[in-house]
Design brief:
The complex is a heterodimer of chains A (540) and B (323). With 540 residues, chain A is an alpha/beta fold. Chain A has a 6-stranded mixed beta sheet, sandwiched between helices. In chain A, strands 18-19-20-15-21-22 form a 6-stranded mixed beta sheet, sandwiched between helices. In chain A, strands 2-1-4-5 form a 4-stranded antiparallel beta sheet, with helices on one face. Chain B has helices spanning 5-30, 38-56, 59-83, 88-111, 139-143, 148-166, 168-178, 180-185, 190-216, 228-238, 243-265, 270-298; strands spanning 116-117, 220-221.
Chain lengths: 540, 323
């Protein structure tokens, strides 16, 4: 494919990785990978889960040693034995799971390990001044004296960036930085990234979100199965071309599914309230909604506006303070999880690692959960029938295309996308009239997203109701027959499919304040939209 | 019973071993090691103090022996919990049992005694009169005339408080305890800081033992710590591992012990007096748990991970990092 470099021959690249090879037992994670990043460039490293992009970045950052290959920073060869050496050489990485000290202040977090001292003690005034200066210079809007635990997640991420800047990082590696952010926060981060690049720093953006790559990056290197499949200049490419390089097949990025044909109610919620404890504002306040058989109802909203609590209350994981919940006509207001499931409810939780699955149990056992009390998986006297469990697992694995060596492997070893397919498969197999789905494609690669979306639509078309909660506006728009918007625990808008667009939903997500509507709109709402307007969509 | 200078004096004396041990426990807690071997380590300190003083012929040999022996003893915890990754609590329980058996055994082999060793020639810590302070009414009698280790324990509170809040070492130690991975990623060795905390805790427990065996009394008797190490553990929890908090909790226990002694002299059954500190410990634990539960309810819900904690968690993980 396109193999030209932006830098002229003879130019020294800020980061150059040549012929990187990294083998794991049975897998070639990096197969002679070349990466060349010019100074001041925003360079996206893309690939599906397991494509080798994390391995490549781990090698660059000294977390892993390559089996072969060389790393050059500004023309000088380096070999890092640990991240500490990489930091000293001017690299810095923001990991997906933040590495912060919640009880310490922003300043303490930033200077940790290289504190300015005065007469042997930490010189707080100098430390604070330096942090405040960095905040101002880069427009990061982080309060230096706040405790990190009290800050929203987007601000915490900027604390991570501050840590790198404090250590004079010239090259910033950001690993899936927007995965945990709300659309508005993500927009803001992209603006920060642009500013950093303007100030001469080089950014390596590891991501699989096409929208933000199109919006912010200068060049893209795409990996698939450990190999580089494309090196592209962002301005000259299209999301479809990148997706093709990532997956090796054509992906229809803006497929909209035909509308469903709603029938009888499978979920009826009246005046549902979930309190947050004495005196506090309720987490969910007087919510009424219905989901009918044969439709997908999407719940949009900026994370933390009560969507999770609503679903947890419906699933029986959180007590209800007021209101009625009817699943398939049966009142389950104070029923246990098991009773609710019997009444006709299945649930794909947001947190697949801890709620959705038992990480250390086998794939087969995870797929058997919920089916384990009754025949055919349970035999006489409630004893489990291993053979039946294996057969059951094999059926789900086959039907939902879960990639695993066997059903005996622990589910925690599967990639995020495959875990999600397994859990979705398990819940769909329950064939319940109502399916609650939270963030079905968070941290999932685009190939799997397509698959998961198709499964949900299939399920709907088979005459079931789906309540879909997602922070991805594009997902809500692609799947929903009706869209509800939650804001501060209440449903503030209900939009039929025809009227639901980024603007209308964004306005409601921000509480109806028109001045904020642009900020609340999702950056990758429709991956095509942001490709046509890469510079305007993100100026917050 | 009157609330007089003598009562304060004996409360401060009773406080000292608990305070030393609790400061050590607080350091470990801050480094992310739940150290419940304070009891056993203190007992080792008691025995080494008496042995050192007896054979060395000087109380200071005794104190130094206590510190060194307790540090060696706590090295076992450091190696086991930090280097080998064993469960600290299980290891500490074993160490506590080991300390009881080992000191009893050595008492018999070294001194040929069973139960107790004491001798008029055994040198104990001499009281220090603070010039100027001793002549002040009330305060003089309450604060002056203690063993040097009592004053050292007060200095230790201040030093450790400053260390934890202002010194780079202390700030890093707190970070190590709170988020070891974050500390590691910034080039701070978690193992090194934990070793330092555990060994310092050992030294402090050694001082606690020296004060108990050469200050409060001048003898060694089997299991003479009698739960003070456990009370120190409670003081760490009650004082939220803050040096000043630990001091306040320790004062509470010291007072209860002193009042118990006093009431015993005024005709209260000895059993009731002996039980008083433990009853206080139970009450304190109950109150600490209650207030923690209330704080937990009022705290902002799980903002660090950006999500509300689930009411029923099936597994605990800090973050879903590798998805």
């Amino acid at each position: 494919m396109n193999d030209q470099h932006a830098a002229a021959p003879g130019d020294i690249a800020e980061v150059e990785m040549r012929g990187i090879v990294r083998r794991f037992p049975g897998v070639l994670a990096n197969d002679r990978v070349d990466l060349r990043v010019a100074s001041g460039e925003i360079h996206a490293v893309m690939g599906e889960n397991g494509a080798g992009k994390s391995t490549l970045m781990s090698i660059l950052y000294g977390l892993q040693r390559p089996d072969a290959g060389r790393i050059l920073l500004r023309g000088t060869e380096h070999s890092f034995g640990s991240p500490v050496q990489a930091i000293a050489a001017g690299l810095g990485m923001v990991h997906q799971g933040f590495k912060l000290f919640p009880s310490l202040t922003v300043t303490e977090n930033v200077v940790y390990g290289s504190e300015p001292t005065r007469r042997g003690l930490v010189d707080r005034a100098t430390a604070r001044a330096r942090v405040a200066e960095l905040v101002d210079t880069h427009g990061l809007h982080v309060p230096p004296d706040a405790r990190v635990a009290d800050l929203p997640i987007g601000v915490q991420q900027r604390v991570e960036i501050l840590k790198l800047l404090y250590r004079d990082a010239r090259v910033l590696i950001l690993d899936e930085p927007t995965a945990v952010l709300t659309p508005a926060e993500a927009d803001r981060l992209l603006a920060v990234i642009r500013g950093l690049a303007r100030s001469g720093r080089t950014i390596l953006l590891v991501t699989h979100k096409l929208g933000e790559v199109m919006a912010v990056s200068d060049r893209v290197t795409v990996l698939r199965d450990g190999r580089v499949t494309a090196r592209l200049a962002t301005a000259e490419t299209t999301p479809a071309e990148i997706a093709l390089a990532m997956t090796g097949r054509r992906i229809d990025l803006d497929r909209t599914h035909p509308a469903g044909t709603p029938a009888a109610d499978v979920l009826e919620v009246r005046g549902l309230t979930v309190s947050a404890g004495r005196g506090a504002k309720p987490l969910v306040e007087n919510v009424s909604l219905t989901v009918r058989a044969g439709e997908i109802v999407g719940v949009a909203g900026v994370a933390g506006n009560g969507q999770s609590e609503l679903v947890e209350a419906l699933a029986g994981l959180r007590p209800i303070d007021a209101g009625r919940v009817l699943v398939a006509g049966r009142d389950v207001g104070d029923a246990s999880v098991q009773q609710r499931r019997r009444a006709g409810l299945a649930y794909v939780p947001e947190d697949r690692a801890t709620v959705g699955a038992a990480r250390d149990a086998s794939l087969a056992d995870n797929l058997a959960m919920g089916f384990h009390r009754t025949p055919p998986l349970a035999g006489r006297g409630g004893f489990l029938r291993r053979a039946a469990i294996r057969e059951h697992a094999a059926r789900v694995i086959e039907r939902f295309g879960v990639k695993a060596a066997s059903s005996a492997v622990t589910i925690g070893t599967l990639s995020g996308g495959n875990q999600q397919k397994a859990i979705l498969g398990r819940e769909i197999t329950h064939d319940a009239p109502l399916l609650l789905v939270e963030q079905p494609t968070r941290g999932v690669d685009i190939g799997s997203i397509e698959n998961i979306h198709a499964r949900l639509v299939e399920y709907r078309d088979a005459g079931h109701g789906v309540l879909l909660v997602s922070a991805e506006l594009s997902e809500i728009l692609a799947l929903s027959d009706r869209v509800l918007v939650m804001y501060e625990g209440r449903i503030v808008a209900e939009l039929p499919r025809a009227e639901a667009d980024v603007h209308a939903i964004g306005l409601a997500m921000a509480g109806g304040d028109p001045t904020r509507s642009a900020a609340a709109a999702d950056p990758d709402a429709g991956d095509d939209a942001s490709s046509t307007a890469p510079t305007t969509a993100h100026q917050v | 019973m009157s609330f007089d200078a003598e009562l304060i004096f004996s409360a401060l004396r009773a406080l000292t071993p608990i305070l030393f041990a609790a400061l050590g426990g607080a350091l470990c807690e801050r480094a992310g090691v739940f150290n419940v071997s304070l009891e056993g380590t203190m007992l080792i300190g008691c025995f080494a103090a008496v042995t050192g003083s007896w054979f060395g012929g000087s109380v200071w040999v005794g104190v130094i022996s206590a510190v060194l022996a307790a540090m060696v003893f706590s090295l076992l915890l450091a190696i086991g919990a930090v280097t080998l990754g064993a469960d600290a609590v299980v290891l500490c329980i074993a160490l506590n049992l080991l300390a009881v058996g080992l000191t009893g055994f050595l008492l018999r082999t070294i001194f040929g005694k069973q139960g107790t060793f004491g001798d008029p020639d055994l040198k104990g810590l001499q009281p220090v009169d603070i010039p100027g302070l001793e002549s002040v009414p009330f305060l003089g009698r309450a604060l002056s005339g203690h063993s040097p280790l009592v004053y050292l324990s007060w200095v230790a509170v201040v030093v450790i408080a400053v260390l934890l809040s202002r010194h780079p070492w202390g700030v890093r130690l707190r970070g190590v305890g709170e988020a070891p991975e974050a500390a590691q990623s910034l080039g701070v060795s978690v193992a090194r800081y934990r070793y330092a905390a555990i060994l310092t805790s050992g030294a402090l427990c050694g001082l606690a033992g020296a004060q108990l065996a050469l200050g409060n009394v001048t003898l060694f008797s089997e299991n003479m710590t009698a739960g003070r190490g456990w009370i120190a553990v409670v003081a760490v929890m009650l004082g939220r591992a803050l040096p000043i908090g630990v001091l306040l909790a320790g004062i509470l226990f010291g007072l209860v012990e002193a009042v118990g002694f006093r009431l015993q002299g005024e005709g209260m059954p000895q059993q009731a007096a002996d039980a008083a500190p433990y009853v206080m410990t139970l009450v304190a634990l109950f109150l600490a748990t209650r207030s923690r539960a209330r704080r937990g309810a009022a705290a902002p819900p799980g903002r660090l991970t950006g999500r509300i904690p689930r009411p029923r968690r099936f597994a605990r993980t800090t973050s879903e990092s590798q998805s």
